[in-house]
Amino acid sequence: MKTKKLIYTLAVSCSLLLTGCSDFLDITPNDRITGDNFYQSESDFQAATAPLYNKVWFDFNDKFYYGLGDGRAGNLYAPYSDYIYPFTDLTETGLTGPLVSAWQSYYNVVQQANRVIIGISGSALDESVKRPYIGEARFMRGMAYWYLTSLWGNVILNENPDELVANPIVNTTTQEDVYEFVMRDFEYAAKYLPATASQKGRLTKYAAYGMLSRVYLAYSGLSNNPNSGTRNTQYLEYAKKAAEVVIESKVYSLMANYADIFTIENNNNQESMFALQWVPNGDYGVTNTQQAYFACDSEITGDDAAWGYWTRASYDVLKEYEKTDLRRKATWMGYGDLYPEINKANGGYLYEKTEQACNVKKGVVGSTKDNASISRMNSALNTNMLRLAEVYLNYAEAVLGNGASTTDATALEYFNALRTRAGVSPKTSISYEDLRHERRVEFCIEGLYWYDLVARAYYKQQEVINYIISQDRGTITPFLYDAATNTASIDDSRDPTTRAIGSIDASIFLLPYPESEVVQNPLLKEAPVSYEFTEERITDLF
Known about the structure:
Layout: H1 3-6, H2 10-14, H3 42-49, H4 58-72, E1 76-77, H5 85-88, H6 97-121, H7 127-152, H8 161-166, H9 175-192, H10 205-222, H11 233-249, E2 272-276, H12 290-294, H13 298-301, E3 312-313, H14 315-318, H15 327-331, E4 332-333, E5 338-339, E6 349-350, E7 359-360, E8 383-387, H16 388-400, E9 405-406, H17 409-422, E10 430-431, H18 432-442, H19 449-457, H20 461-470, E11 475-476, E12 479-482, E13 487-490, E14 497-498, H21 515-520
Antiparallel strand pairs: 1-3, 2-8, 4-7, 5-6, 9-10, 11-14, 12-13
């Protein structure tokens, strides 16, 4: 493992200047950053945790967030983008660039969080002051490890960077123990984070409960004898309870208009529970570069950073949208769609690039003339990592549990709240297929759908394999798209083309370890070991 890359020094991390970040943080750099004289005050704690909201996530956010989460899930078609098509085609290797960068980014999060936890724990300040910031760091570490184990299964667990520097050749830990570690981190955060954010954009205890609803739900399928066809009812109940805590707190609420969630003006909105915070006009490394890879032409960005013409919606995902679903226009640009918030000076941006494809809209916000927070390769738009909408669906899925369908009134209320906002008719009962569809269209281009499929594969692997086969990724289907009715139809005037893809079998649910890491730590390929936990699990959250 490249420990020099995996461990951000405290000096670098805490010297970040975060100003004007959607009213998130206003941290003045502190020149007292050494082990002996830092962590002396609460403002030091704030400075130390600030980089956990952007800097350490940069390489993950730059391309991997959507390349894996949406590309591998079959939402994106990008035949010339090597940060997407290896995942879509299921042909990635341990040398695939974004895969290597993401692994390093996750461990940057882990080790920066570890540094913060160790530093704050050693402070002389009262425990009541320290615990919320330790909870913040543990939330971030738990998030990174949730990604790591979702993608690689058995990974290296570490709570002390110095130990890993001294001996980087270590075994991985079993996936079950990694999940246990993740749950413990989020449970600590749920207990000790504040009920209301100390600063706009910072975490609350309810964000931790929201993540617990996601993790408990996933673990319910893994812990009940993997691939058994059923889920652990105890963890389904935990997922339901965690979601209930969030929803009943009323700290968060749905935005009335779906499209408004994805504007710079609405960073840290009422629905956002955890989002990465990018610095307007900031230096590379604390900026959101996604628009440059999504925008289909320079008329949108006002500069040459618009490389997204061939980053498009798959035919498979476009078939999911119901005719009146407002989420399609907020997610994908279809021929004739007008976006008043882009190219404002000329009356808006009218998408007329092609009727034979849809380009990405979500994450595309315009030029510096549209918003002063935008600069070249920086949209300044928060990256959504957890929204209240997901907690609603987590609740509904936990209630569904192992049943074929549910008519539970509360589950239907939350489920239909999203459909009503989207302009589609409510359901009178909910099946897994309803939930799968709703998750796909609600969070499309938010990097989530692959993880939904992985969680399903924990207990119904062959079903998910069959589903991915049915996406027919090896065939590029020519189609026409009618934006007015959200309808994709096969274009018989053009011939379909083929594309070589990898084998679709159980192997697709685990990524290869980065080759450079295996070379430096051959134990990555050896059998995993159990983890020795040093603290009791928190049990009084509900």
